[in-house]
Specification:
This protein has 3 helices and no strands. By secondary structure, it is mostly helical. Helix 2 (29-46) packs antiparallel against helix 3. The protein is elongated and about 50 Å long.
């Protein structure tokens, strides 16, 4: 795997985690991260059916880390107390 694809797996799933958390604001972030990890696992598993593609558990781990980071960023944005004007 090229040196570009591994970081891309992480970076491309950050917005996914952020947007899924934004789409379901009342849901627990851990539940969303676990669900997104399952989606990543299904995506990698589907590669078994495609010629020339090879699933990787490292890709699942990086995708999951990206989702968790996106959820964390969302949580930081939502839970940041707003400053009051003086």
């Amino acid at each position: 795997m090229s040196a570009v694809k591994r970081p891309a797996n992480l970076v491309l799933f950050i917005p996914f985690g952020f947007l899924v958390c934004a789409s379901f604001p009342g849901s627990r972030q851990l539940r969303i991260v676990i669900s997104c990890c399952a989606v990543s696992l299904v995506i990698e598993g589907a590669q078994l059916l495609l010629p020339g593609r090879h699933p990787s558990i490292v890709d699942v781990a990086l995708n999951s880390a990206g989702v968790a980071l996106g959820a964390f960023i969302f949580g930081m944005c939502v839970n940041t107390p707003s400053r009051q004007s003086r």
